[in-house]
Amino acid sequence: MVREDWGQHGTAMVPQSAVIREWIGAPPYIFAVTDLKKFNSDDRGADLEAAEYIAPEVATHKVFNISELSRLEREDKVIDHAIVVLHPYEQRELDTIREAAKADSVGRLFVLIWSPHDIVRTWLDGLGAINLHTGKSLPDPDPLMVAASGMMVGEEYNGLSSGHGKDAVVQLVRVFAAEGYSIDVDAWLRAYFAAGGSFRHAESIEKLVKDMKAGTRHRVTPRYRDNIVQIIRERVRSGQ
C-alpha cells in the first residue's frame, strides 16, 4: 500500500489501518524500519505515526531495523509472523528485503511505500503482491519478457550498465520492440524482478530503457541471434 492511499489527506488512516491489521493477523505487530533510533515520540516521524495507527496499543509493538532481516538468512531462521516494513527506500534496505523474501525467511510481508513511484512498488508488482488498497494484484508480467529478463540476470556478474550486460539489455529490448512490444520501463522492470533481478542492477535497466524510449541509439555488440525472440518463445512453450 502506498502512503498516500493509506492516508488519503488525513481521512483514511483508521479504516486503512484496520485493513492492514486484518491482513497481517493477530499481534504482536512486528515493524521493520529504516532507523530504529528515530522511532520515538520525540522525533514523531512518519514511521512512528504509521505504526501507531496500525497497532494503537504500544504493548503490541516489536520494532527492529530493516538491516537485521539479513541475519535471518545467515542464521537459517524464519519469522512465521507477518512483518510490516515501513517506508523502505535505500538500495541496501531494498535488497535486504528482497533477499529475505527470496530465502523464505519471512512468512508474510506487508510494505507501506512512501511514494507511488518508488521502485520497491515495481518489485512488489513484479512478484504479484496484493495491493491492500485495491485488494488486487497486477497481471503477471509477460512470460517471454520474464524469460528475456532472466537472460539479463545471467549477465549481472559483469554489471548491466556497460559491456556484455549492457549489450544484452539493449539488444533484448530492441528485438522485443521489433516484435511489437512497447519500450515500457515499468513493464521491463516488473519482468526483471519476476526473473529474480536485484535492485542494484535494476537502476541500469531503468536508465537504458528510458534512454531507448527517448530515442537514444546505444552502440552495442550483438549477443544473440536475430531470431532470439522465437528461440525464447520456444523455450517458454516447452517449459525450459
N/C terminus separation: 35 Å
Return Rg in Å. Answer: 20 Å
Q: What would you call the shape?
A: elongated
Strand content: 5-15%
Sheet bearing the most strands, described? 4 strands, parallel
The count of DSSP E runs of length 2 or more, i.e. the number of strands, is: 4
Number of self-contained structural domains: 2
Strand order of the largest sheet: 2-1-3-4
What this model shows, in words?
With 240 residues, the chain is α/β, with parallel strands linked by helices. The protein folds into two domains: 3-126, Rossmann fold (3-Layer(aba) Sandwich); 143-238, no CATH class. It has eleven helices and four strands; from the N terminus they run H-H-E-H-E-H-E-H-E-H-H-H-H-H-H. The chain has helices at 3-7, 13-24, 46-54, 69-74, 91-102, 119-126, 143-153, 163-178, 185-194, 199-213, 228-238, and strands at residues 29-33, 61-65, 79-86, 106-112. The protein has a four-stranded parallel sheet with strand order 2-1-3-4, covered by helices on one side. Helix 7 packs antiparallel against helix 8 and helix 9 (185-194) packs antiparallel against helix 10. The radius of gyration is 20 Å and the shape is elongated. The chain starts with a helix and ends with a helix.
